[in-house]
Amino acid sequence: MATAAALEYQEFPLEAQHSATRTGMTDHEAGDAADFLAEFVANQGEFSVQSDITLDFNTIDRISLISRARELLEDQGVVMVTNYTPHEDIDRIRYDFETVCDAYSAHLARDQRFEDDKVRISPTSERLDSKTQAEMEKPLFRLRDGSDRGIISVFRIQRLLNPVNAKSLIQHLRSDFVRSVVDGYDGRNWNFSDGYTNAYINRSMIQTRGYHMDGLCGNMKAFLYLTDVESEADGPYCYARGTHKEAELAAVNQHLNSRLGWHELDFAFFDRRRETACLGERGTLIISDQSGSHHAHPQAEGAERIVAVQSIMAS
Q1: How far is CA 246 from the centre of its chain?
Q2: What is the pLDDT of residue 2?
């Protein structure tokens, strides 16, 4: 029988043993679960994933670019487009955004609830459901907790920017290009919402949440790097190519999550050859099917990554 080592997964049996007391899973059961998963992945055979998910916005005609981007999204679950937004546009947007963040830096550092006529700050101790976050009129700074502790999520980033930069950001995140790539994906209609135009700020995130999915279907995201993310030390967005099509593998992960007491949407177990770090300069666009396994790579101390994010929801 295949062993857990065949998965190139980091110490799964040890992780299981640490969780055994809490979940009632014995060491023997944990080992059996690891062997089962290894055999399951091995029996999937070779998968059709390409080594490169990257396209250059300026190298081919727009119709061909859209067609190729759609192919990659459907086959791989993710596509990355370099040189998508000019550096000068990105720099203006980021400067505007960071100026606002600096103005509230003292309040953010206190990790306490704060609200004025422009923004609301939600501390790590406050629990807000996604519907409440999306429906607030004001921009919301949410200090993340748990495995995401240290990340600042900023909802409705466009309302923090001056009108010129706000328009520019929206035009890039909801462009005709992005709409054409996602239009009809998975046989569905896809919508862009003001409440889900956000930003993530990662600074010195030396530990991040592991691979996970956002749900089984109905959610894509467009990511736009506002800072250069050119090495793993910068904390790139990472994706396990093709896992958006692996419903059986997702079910196996969910079963093991329940046995180990992990979050139900964790998606840590897959053939590591699928793993891709999305590296690119500021202005790089990533379109991703969030039902596939993904996460943010841990950063080096002192690194900063800022990314604007547009959620795209199936109707």
Answers
A1: 18
A2: 31
Terminus-to-terminus CA distance in the chain, angstroms? Answer: 44
| Close Cβ partners of 164 (under 8 Å, ≥ 6 residues apart) | 92
Strands of the chain (E only): list them. Answer: 54-56, 78-82, 114-115, 120-122, 140-143, 152-155, 190-203, 219-225, 237-240, 275-278, 285-289, 294-296, 304-314
Task: Let me know how many helices (H) and strands (E) the chain has, helices first.
Answer: 9, 13
Residue-wise pLDDT for 16-66, tens only, equals 333 333 344 455 655 666 666 666 655 555 544 445 899 999 998 999 999
Average pLDDT over residues 168-197: 92
Q: Identify the CATH assignment for 50-250+272-314 out of 2.60.120.620, 2.30.42.10, 2.50.20.10, 3.40.47.10.
A: 2.60.120.620
